[in-house]
Design the sequence.
């Protein structure tokens, strides 16, 4: 019996127009390995401010959609900037909405760090925060798929995709590592 296509949800932590993080994920959608589909989550700016009192039925429609998208994905790939040494507030808000839902529990997740070469920390603060939050959700962090691919804004072409071959290969490698982890989990051989 043929396995259903592997679904990878791509979540960008930036709302910035022309974001290199968004370019990485648009490129990732094109670079999905055979047997996988990668789709972009596009509701970050619609999420209400997290309030535990509102984390009950009926959920805000934007929160319900986020949880449904994460829940139906086989794996999640994040790409987010660092802002003031940590996660941007809107992205942290998205993560807060995933803590209580359980959709990421045991789910393979990874991130790509696209902080440019001039970044003093290379986005380390944001990704340590992300690692901490994902730990609270019980996500399966796939280290082989967590990568640093530093990009300058000029590395993004006019259509909004990463232009360099080496960078596209690295993005494809991250997706392949996530797909491998999902395949292992499906076959019962995950570490």
Sequence:
């Amino acid at each position: 019996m043929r396995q259903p296509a592997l679904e990878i949800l791509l979540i960008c932590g930036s709302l910035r127009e022309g974001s290199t993080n968004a370019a990485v994920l648009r490129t990732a959608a094109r670079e999905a390995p055979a047997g996988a589909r990668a789709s972009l989550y596009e509701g970050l700016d619609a999420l209400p401010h997290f309030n535990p009192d509102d984390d009950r039925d009926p959920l805000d429609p934007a929160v319900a959609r986020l949880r449904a998208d994460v829940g139906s994905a086989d794996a999640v790939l994040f790409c987010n900037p660092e802002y003031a040494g940590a996660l941007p507030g809107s992205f942290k808000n998205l993560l807060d909405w995933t803590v209580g839902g359980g959709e990421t529990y045991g789910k393979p997740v990874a991130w790509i760090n696209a902080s440019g070469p001039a970044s003093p920390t290379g986005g380390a603060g944001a990704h340590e925060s992300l690692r901490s939050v994902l730990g609270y959700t019980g996500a399966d962090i796939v280290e082989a798929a967590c990568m640093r691919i530093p990009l300058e804004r000029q590395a993004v072409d006019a259509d909004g995709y990463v232009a360099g071959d080496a960078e596209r290969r690295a993005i494809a490698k991250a997706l392949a590592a996530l797909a491998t982890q999902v395949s292992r989990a499906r076959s019962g051989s995950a570490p």
